[in-house]
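[step 3/7] fold_predict: job queued, chain A
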Amino acid sequence: MQSSHAVSAVSVVFDEPNLIADAGLVPLVRLAERAGLPALVGDRLRIEGTGSGAGANPAAKVMTLVAAMCAGADSIDDTDRLRHGATERLFGGVRAPSTLGTFLRAFTHGHNRQLHAVQRDFLARLARATPLLPGVDQVAFVDIDPTHRRVYGRAKQGAEVGRFKGVRTLYPILATLSTPLARPVIAAVRLRWGKAADARGAGSFTAEALAATGQAGASGTVIVRADSQFYNADVVAACRRANARFSVTVRMNPHVAAAISANTGW
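[step 4/7] structure written:
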């Protein structure tokens, strides 16, 4: 037995009008609505002066993007999956890929900061509405680390060819929140410009992550963990101001080496 068509000639499309490919989105979208995500976006996000209508009804656009990503979309074109089959019978206000592309291209760094505020408040509401972070009132871990995400558009704001030769990347810094009983969730994220050093803005970012952790219900012991790139006074000061413990890898430098040599009993 063999295929009767060349692979390049085969096209698979979900076009059954009475079926729903991603019915699992129903409880997910309802949970997001119950925790107030559309209202938060509508209240906090403002995109004005574009002349393209990009900022109109941001809540519907953000909800479409979130649902599409949860359904497996990893590009703007993939968001069109929400308009296949009978999905429109379950969800209203789904936006077309072209509309979503116009929306995202209108974002500046200031708009990203608005979304960060939405994410922080939504995490707090979600933690109150669900058992998202069991034990967060006892012990909470905040892990801080930079990451590098490849992008392809040359006009992508903040992206540069940096540590990976010939690869254009973004350099966000992330903070995850977890407990001994809960998997990590993102507590804070910050998109930095260009070939940012790992510790750039780490002090204020640590303070922001700890504030989000408190909003999410962390009222017991909070432990910040980071590698040696975050071994600086600003990070430690932010932890102390928030009454958080910290575990930061110490870089080997002449002062540390001398201290070790002076304590030969170690």
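[step 5/7] annotate
The first strand starts at residue 139 and ends at 146.
The radius of gyration is 22 Å.
exit 0
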